[in-house]
Design brief:
The protein is about 20% helix and about 30% strand. It is an alpha+beta fold. The strands form two sheets. A three-stranded antiparallel sheet has the order 3-4-5, covered by helices on one side. Strands 1-2 form a two-stranded antiparallel ribbon. The mean pLDDT is about 90.
């Protein structure tokens, strides 16, 4: 018996314009980067995406865009 698992990844952009594919089912929260933390993450980072494994991904998209991409897959 062959079982094929299909899931959709969302594509986001990392700090150096690298493409990041993220499983939307593993997204726990998203939050904007505080202005005082931009020196730590870089000026291009606008959103931190927290995942089920306790890590986070820093992306250049704003959090509303990230939420929309996640919700499109989860619907």
């Amino acid at each position: 018996m062959l079982v094929i698992l299909a899931f959709h990844m969302i594509e986001l952009t990392g700090p150096d314009n690298q493409k990041i594919e993220l499983n939307p089912y593993e997204v726990v929260t998203v939050r904007p980067v505080r202005p005082d933390a931009s020196s730590h993450f870089g000026k291009s980072i606008r959103c931190l995406v927290h995942t089920t494994d306790g890590k986070f991904v820093a992306v250049t998209e704003d959090c509303d865009t990230v939420k929309k991409k996640v919700e499109e897959v989860l619907q």
